[in-house]
Amino acid sequence: MLKKDSWLNRTINLKVWLIVVILSLLIIILGRYSLLVENYYATGFYPKFSYGWRLLLGWIPFSLGDILYLFLIIIIIVKIVQSVRRIFKRQWTRDFFASSLKGFLFGCLVIFVVFYISWGMNYSRKGIAYQLSLDVKPYTLQELDTLTGLLQKKLNELAAQVSMAERTELKSKKQLFKMGDEAYQAISVKYPFLKYEPVSLKPSIFSYAGNFLGFSGYYNPFTGEGQVNTTVPVFTRPFITFHEIAHQVGYAKENEANFMAYLSGREHPSVGGRYSIYFEMYRYSVYEIYKRDTALAAAYRQKLHPQVIRDLLELKIFSEKYESVAEDYFMGIFNLFLKANKQPAGTASYNQVVAWLEAYRKKFGNENL
């Protein structure tokens, strides 16, 4: 009977391995066909799947995804400690090593399959440039100068209007997340594929750790929750919120999520919300100028509204306060992750939103930027 059970268990294990391996190969193959992913996954399966997750977990006031990550971190630490103890006790046998390696590989494959089925296939979609028929291509310094000038003009106008009361209101997590919902409800009237409901935004329990590691928000594909670091300067929080919702509605690449944050937030009735959007877009744009012409970038700074200058200084002080070696390592790993997911520029892909902005400006005109 024991031998029969052992044979049965081996057969079941083999079948499970085959299923996971076959699913992994299918994901890799399908990822090569962006139009197929766009039509059947990104605008077919994923919106319904993500809606279900947000409906199930969105009402919970804290992030279950963060609890899941914390639990996994604890398990990893325990496993490492156990392995080290085995080594010192000379209990590290060949069978134990083979069993551990097999379990590790299987766990990685399962995470890979779940990640890409639940969200990751969006890295292979056609994306917003395809949906809006934008001609995204390299831009000249002259075009960049025009774009940056328009963004700065809009930013300065908003800086003159934003009030302390509005900024104080942004400290409320409830109000901040409501703003994100309102922005996407409004944009979905024009672009129905951006419909976002129900809301599933949570303050990150890793917010302070995020300051040292260099992240201000993230999407958890395993629970459908968008996490926002609510300890960063208040004027940056609306943009972060809009960016994380963009991930939730299916835009995985960072340049596209940045562009979607701009597209959804630019017409929000709150001056503070719009200021946050143009503040970030201006920073990306003027940085691209700085890489090509430092004198021109310096000239732009001379024309900034005093409120913008104060905010840039506050953000600089905040960033320097939390500088750490851990951030370098974390960003290095994240850089490799992005490159492995069809973003060859890695963390620099965030700045590529400028190309999307320029394509949008050319198609819809300066007045609509």
Any overview of this molecule?
This protein has 369 residues and is mainly α. It folds into 2 domains: 2-122, no CATH class; 128-368, no CATH class. The protein has 16 helices and 3 strands. The chain has helices at 2-30, 34-57, 64-88, 94-118, 128-131, 141-161, 164-169, 173-190, 207-213, 237-248, 254-265, 271-292, 294-302, 306-321, 325-340, 353-364, and strands at residues 201-203, 217-220, 225-228. A 3-stranded mixed sheet has the order 1-3-2, sandwiched between helices. Helix 10 packs across helix 11 (254-265) and helix 12 packs antiparallel against helix 13. The longest helix has 29 residues, at 2-30.
Summarize this structure briefly.
It is built from 16 helices and three strands.
List keywords for this structure.
single chain, 369 residues, mainly alpha, 2 domains, 3-stranded mixed beta sheet
